[in-house]
Amino acid sequence: xxxxxxxxxxxxxxxxxxxxxxxxxxxxxxxxxxxxxxxxxxxxxxxxxxxxxxxxxxxxxxxxxxxxxxxxxxxxxxxxxxxxxxxxxxxxxxxxxxxxxxxxxxxxxxxxxxxxxxxxxxxxxxxxxxxxxxxxxxxxxxxxxxxxxxxxxxxxxxxxxxxxxxxxxxxxxxxxxxxxxxxxxxxxxxxxxxxxxxxxxxxxxxxxxxxxxxxxxxxxxxxxxxxxxxxxxxxxxxxxxxxxxxxxxxxxxxxxxxxxxxxxxxxxxxxxxxxxxxxxxxxxxxxxxxxxxxxxxxxxxxxxxxxxxxxxxxxxxxxxxxxxxxxxxxxxxxxxxxxxxxxxxxxxxxxxxxxxxxxxxxxxxxxxxxxxxxxxxxxxxxxxxxxxxxxxxxxxxxxxxxxxxxxxxxxxx
Amino acid sequence: xxxxxxxxxxxxxxxxxxxxxxxxxxxxxxxxxxxxxxxxxxxxxxxxxxxxxxxxxxxxxxxxxxxxxxxxxxxxxxxxxxxxxxxxxxxxxxxxxxxxxxxxxxxxxxxxxxxxxxxxxxxxxxxxxxxxxxxxxxxxxxxxxxxxxxxxxxxxxxxxxxxxxxxxxxxxxxxxxxxxxxxxxxxxxxxxxxxxxxxxxxxxxxxxxxxxxxxxxxxxxxxxxxxxxxxxxxxxxxxxxxxxxxxxxxxxxxxxxxxxxxxxxxxxxxxxxxxxxxxxxxxxxxxxxxxxxxxxxxxxxxxxxxxxxxxxxxxxxxxxxxxxxxxxxxxxxxxxxxxxxxxxxxxxxxxxxxxxxxxxxxxxxxxxxxxxxxxxxxxxxxxxxxxxxxxxxxxxxxxxxxxxxxxxxxxxx
Lengths: 413, 413
Hints:
2 copies of one chain form a homodimer.
Chain A: H1 2-13, E1 24-25, E2 31-32, E3 41-42, H2 43-60, H3 64-67, H4 73-85, E4 92-94, H5 98-112, E5 118-122, H6 127-139, E6 144-148, E7 162-168, H7 180-189, E8 193-197, E9 216-219, E10 234-237, H8 239-242, H9 281-292, H10 299-320, E11 327-328, E12 340-344, H11 349-358, E13 361-362, E14 364-366, E15 370-374, H12 382-397
Parallel strand pairs in A: 2-13, 5-6, 5-7, 7-8, 8-9
Antiparallel strand pairs in A: 1-3, 4-10, 9-10, 11-12, 12-15, 14-15
Helix pairs in contact in A: 1-12, 2-9, 4-9, 5-6, 10-12
């Protein structure tokens, strides 16, 4: 264990991202391992919001739609996300929630792949992915939803009816990473498109949509991108689709001439047509500011740090804690793993997470048995990882978790 | 004219809402007649946003979904809007944009009125209403969209195929108010539901959804409610529909048990099922705070002030300016008029609005010829109305508008 602490300190000493931690406000003493659920406040967001409220909204008022660039925010914010996912400028539209963007993306795929009417969704996706697919299938009489069961290879389910395969690039429970290029190629070979949910990818895991020849992608911005609670999500379509794709949430802000007030909807050129209604400026501005941090980030270093942190965590936990019943459910191969690590602990998993939270080590729990710990590379240190493992070991070894106060289950666990 | 100034001063002296102007930040000397497009900053919103960022997001982090009530915001904010539109507690859901909520509402109507497959939309609606109806009709093969042409009585178009009639309660150009109860009764008699767009109603014009026996309504919160640029919109369904209505944007935040992570979507009880994805907390919190002002507002006084201000404006303009080619296109009867007034001015209308803006009198222009002036009762005085007319008269009488600098057309006019 001493060796591992020394190793962690050595990794911190050479961490090229270490200085970025000062860009975030985190409570003193907290070890925040839940940035995969909600990223912390980038300090610069405060000043930006003050400016937006006092100057842009307060003084500029209606004129700020043009003068402060509010109208353009869905695309300018998208341009900040594009480099993180292997997309180009003008290709990413930001707005609405991931759920709503999933609906747009699925409907867009049905439009692009005319004649095919089956949505094939991985049953392991985050639940809202399935719920949105269900909503679409209930609305459109001839559209059907089928599931890819856990462990079932996509190829076995891709028959001639499947219009689109809905997959998470990084699994929200296990952090397993799909091979985007290979899966996309398999789907294309069988005439299906793929809609990738990048919610647990963006800002933590390598992703190259263009290299993978992907079709459509959506993703969340309040996790590793630190855009704030419920920050607007993003949508992307490959440029080969962008000029002919239609999506049904065809609001005025995706119109070619929103202020011409014509009766007929005419989609804007390219990804702007993925925008629906009026952008939520306050939330979008906070996200925009949070994203400015990324222009200085060496993405190779980011991904390497993610892998090194999750590897350190797994090794340290397995060296000290497995006798207490923990089972790793995340991939052991770092190249197949996202930026979080999950251990199942059927007896006491929920309580252990609460006991950790009481000590300032914030992870989360996913029923029935999964303890989930996220390692966001921008603000965590390797030494913090070791401290987290130390607390975990102590809680398990002393059964400190076995107290009534750790058993109350709230809404979000 | 002197009499009218004295009258305005007298109205100000007895205005029960006059003190509320101090709750808003408006630039010194500005007369803001565009609150029907974007309301100004309620001063209290600043402190709330600081609290949300520093304390709730910054310190509470993920725990704030429960501890700070973020999860409940769509419904708690809805409860603040409900009294303004004649709805009850738990009936209004807030989130997404008006455009997206129009889609939900139209699809919900198709679900409720099974068998009928025509959407009948007033051609005079704000364009996004038509665009969303077009998106839905293109997505669902057997759904068709028809228009009610300007001046055509709805009854003449309500045949046995019409599932839902899509109407604006207050016309965004002319401010003409529809008779909600009568139109709803006519539609019901012919087997159609009505979806009301309340964007230009809420916070300015009397509206009693329950008394009108309305079915579905959506509306905007960044106009008279001052929720901030692109503030989340609201949706309402009558309680008689709320337990059986389905809407296709069935995201996890509208699920009966969002954290049970079941595969099947099960709608939450009542209006919560109108919520789709994760709420945009920063934008929602600003709106929530802006709405706290309304608990002290006497709504009868608000509506009376709206009518008195628009009446004063019309009378003063017609007394001094009509020789310059202005034509009133808003109803002369105050009970049929919303809280804005529109004059057409084919020669120079655009430039006159720019010249007014240059003097700090902010109205807007809608092509081809409409000058539009909004009179939000919470922060405007009758004396300001007179000052605005004075500037308008001066600009017209001296042709001060006839300058190249007033001819540049931006995106938002």
